[in-house]
Automatic annotation (TrEMBL):
Belongs to the TatA/E family. Part of the twin-arginine translocation (Tat) system that transports large folded proteins containing a characteristic twin-arginine motif in their signal peptide across membranes. TatA could form the protein-conducting channel of the Tat system. The keyword Repeat does not apply. Keywords: Cell membrane, Membrane, Protein transport, Translocation, Transmembrane, Transmembrane helix, Transport. The Tat system comprises two distinct complexes: a TatABC complex, containing multiple copies of TatA, TatB and TatC subunits, and a separate TatA complex, containing only TatA subunits. Substrates initially bind to the TatABC complex, which probably triggers association of the separate TatA complex to form the active translocon. The lineage of its organism: Bacteria, Bacillati, Actinomycetota, Actinomycetes, Micrococcales. The chain crosses the membrane at residues 6-23. This is Sec-independent protein translocase protein TatA. The keyword Oxidoreductase does not apply. Residues 54-86 have a biased composition (Polar residues). The gene is tatA. It is found in: Cell membrane. Residues 45-86 are annotated as: Disordered. InterPro entries: TatA/B/E, TatA/E. It is a single-pass membrane protein.
């Protein structure tokens, strides 16, 4: 008798069983799934941005790059005789 059930029949039977026994739990499961997806998305975005935060310069939305020059060899002031920071 079970040999005559096709995949469509099994799917319909599964949906009926879920609706009968799992209806009170469905909203909680949907909220949990949505929260899990938000957490997953934020973690993926964090991994994508992780490499960008390690650079010394940042790019703004208008394409301007700002940054700090560290240990620039041309920073000696020849007129005053001061030395560059090392």
């Amino acid at each position: 008798m079970l040999g005559n059930l096709g995949p469509v029949h099994l799917l319909i039977l599964l949906i009926i069983i879920i609706l009968l026994f799992g209806a009170p739990k469905l909203p909680g499961m949907a909220r949990s799934l949505g929260q899990s997806m938000r957490i997953f998305k934020s973690e993926v975005d964090g991994l994508k941005n992780d490499g960008k935060k390690n650079t010394s310069s940042t790019t703004t939305n208008d394409g301007v790059v700002s940054g700090e020059v560290i240990n620039n060899p041309s920073s000696t002031d020849q007129n005053t005789g001061s030395h560059r920071a090392e």
